[in-house]
Structure formats: structure tokens, C-alpha cells
Amino acid sequence: MQLVIVTGLSGAGKTQAVRALEDLGYFCVDNMPPNLISRFAELFRENEGEIQKVALVMDIRGGKFFESVFEALTFLDAHNHNYEILFLEASEEVLVKRFKETRRRHPLSTQGRILDGIIEERKRLQDLRGRASKVIDTSDLNVHQLKEQVVDLYGDSKDNRMVVTLMSFGFKYGIPLDADLVMDVRFLPNPHYEPHLRNFTGHDQKVQEYVLESPVTRIFLEKFEGMLAFLLPYYVQEGKSHLVIAIGCTGGRHRSVTLANEIGGRLDCKEECRISVKHRDIMRNSGEQA
């Protein structure tokens, strides 16, 4: 049985993630009390593998029942059950906005501010986040983008290769919270200062040529590709299933997009991993520095 435990901050998108898993053929249970995991695993064992993929949502809504989550994980480890923890999170600002838009009450802010509940929940879930197999920061994702990420991670159960996500971003909007490696490419020539390139992005050939034809860029790509060729086999050996490489420039529209696309193309031939390229900030204000 392939078991995915979905957890994370309230308002971070667990419902949408579970819907995506359900569409992928997972048997899903929402708000599962952790102390029922042992009986749940026994139930599926008795059905002799008729259901192969299961997703269980366990979060702070469980109240006192949720406090037994680490005992449940200990049980799974002791009985050699194959499971992953998918942890969803978002920034305080985004979570407050989402709760206000939906007019829903935060589970931990019954008599206080929404922000107080979010801060307390993040504190309580800190240790569980540390045990997560995969972390998705949904601060800048819409419903469709979140579903796309879940499908990338769990859509092909036959392909167990590590997923490497190359994510371009703008430092002015903050470093992606789920980044494992962060590379700052603000030292490269900036197309923003070329009037005929400013309104284009790293998807456009003229911007790509401007960035990639620089001698500094060519040297950087050679050295960075060599470093990744060294690192990736060790991440695979460690058992890491998802690696996020964040590549940032100032605004996330020109240099970082160009480099993410280029490095993604170069890594695509690696047999030990699957490549996914994302551009977090490419749709931001085109008039800002990139």
C-alpha cells in the first residue's frame, strides 16, 4: 500500500491537494484521527491489496486526537509501512487573506486574531514539518498550479525517480519557502536595463541570447551543471524524493527564467531524476527590475 499523509497549515490548500490525489486514484480520508492508523492499516491488509494508494489528511482540526500523530508514525515505522508525509504551508499574510476571504474561523483562534492562531499552529507543527517527505509552499499558487504540483509528485506511481523542480523567482518577492538549494544569479547581465528587452521575459529568444551569450553565464552554467552532476546521485542515494532548486534574480522575469529553462533542459537527460521547471514570479509587474 502506498500511503500519503497530508498535513500542514490550515488554509494552505490541503483540501485541493486531496482532491488532486483522489483524481489520481487515491482512496482519501479527511480529518483522520492518527490513533486509528493501526486499525486502518489492518483493514487494508485484510483486503489483500485491493486498494493500493491511500491518502489520509491529519491536521490540527483533530484537536486532542491529533496529539497522537507521532505515535502513529512510530507504528508505521515499526511495521515497515511505506508512507510519505506531504506538508502544505503558506505565508502568514496569505493565510490571513484566505481566511478573511472565506470568512472561516481558524481552528486555533476561537477567541483571538486569525494571525495568532496561524502562528500557534505553525509552532505546533514544526516538528512534523521536519519529518515531511515533501513540502509545498502554496503562497503563490492558485488551485490549478497546486494540482499540477501534486500530479507532478504523485501522478506516475511507476516512475519512482526523484523529482527535481527548477524554480525561477524574484528576490524582491522573497525566497521560496520550500527551496532546498538557492542560487542567486543577480551577478549576470540584466536585460532590464536594455530598453528593447525590458518588456520581454526569459521565455523570449532575444532575452535568452542576451543572458546566455555572456561569458560569465557560460562559465557559471558549466560550473553549476558540474556541481549538480555531483550532488544529484547523492540526493537519490539519500532517498530524497523531491528536490527544489530555486534560481533567483531581482524580479524573477529575465535572468532566473532563462537559467531555470536552460538548466532544466541540460538536466532532462539525467536518468536518476525527473525534471520540472516552474516560474513563480514571471507574471509580476513587467515594469519592475528583473
UniProtKB/TrEMBL annotation:
Gene transcribed to yield this protein: rapZ
Pfam assignment, any one: PapZ_C
Name of the featured protein: RNase adapter RapZ
UniProt domain RapZ-like N-terminal: residue ranges: 1-153
Residue intervals of the RapZ C-terminal domain: 162-282
Keyword Kinase belongs to the record: no
Species per Swiss-Prot/TrEMBL record: Metallumcola ferriviriculae
InterPro entries reported in the protein's UniProt record: P-loop_NTPase (IPR027417), RapZ-like (IPR005337), RapZ-like_N (IPR053930), RapZ_C (IPR053931)
Any one GO MF annotation of this record: GTP binding
Binding positions (GTP): D59, I60, R61, G62
Keywords: ATP-binding, GTP-binding, Nucleotide-binding
Annotated ATP binding sites: G8, L9, S10, G11, A12, G13, K14, T15
